[in-house]
Model the fold of this input.
Amino acid sequence: MTDTTKDPAGADIAEQAAEALAAKAHHCWARMAALSIAAGGFIAFGAIAYLIVQAGGGAVSGPTQLLSGAAFSVGLILVMVTGTELFTGNTMMVLPAATGDVTAARVAGAWSLVWVGNLVGSVAVAGLFVAAGGLEGLDGTIGDAAAATMKSKLDKSVLATLTSGILANMLVCLAVWMAMFARTLSGKVAVIVGPVAVFVAAGFEHSVANMSLLPIGWAADPNSAVPWGAGLRNLAFSTVGNVIGGASIALILAYGHGKLIREE
Done:
């Protein structure tokens, strides 16, 4: 008897996702490094867009938060359209590892390289933004927004950082999963904006976004002691949370569509 409960489109995407993620994992190391630096910079552009809306939005409110999230989605749109390497999206490489199409060692190497590349690109664009006088924009309110954003992130407990990292990357990877197979540019944009707007508006922790938001926040508040320990803790636990969130989305969707088990 034919199984009429399975969505053929969803099953096709799950199968293609494993192949596409395996191909990304086997990318040339040097090219992967270059593309990861670019992706970090693109996400930093999204972070800058977020700060501009935060600065001009007045009192914190639901609409302001959602608009800030929509602005931040520019970063992920740039990543997906240009085909660059983003650590949080690449957490879904656990799928080809689970199907045996790529080794765990290769995945670990790709994750490490892309994470560092994202950091380099993020810090570079953050530094250029600060040097260009970006913090003085909108009568200095962009700097105020950056400092407030940094404080809100560093004030979170380890548990809050970890769990919000999980939720953030569940949403990001849903956006990436859909965007990988959108047939048109407008389709890619449409499926990215919603999930990203939700995760940003909710204040969830995205490790790569924080690679630019934290340095910009530190530059905006030079009179305070630079909380390096708190910053490293945020990056560490948001990264772990992002891995859990991204991996869970890939594995759950693949398993649900029968791509991790042999069907009789």
Summary: DSSP finds eleven helices and no strands in the chain. The chain has one domain: 8-256. The mean pLDDT is 92.
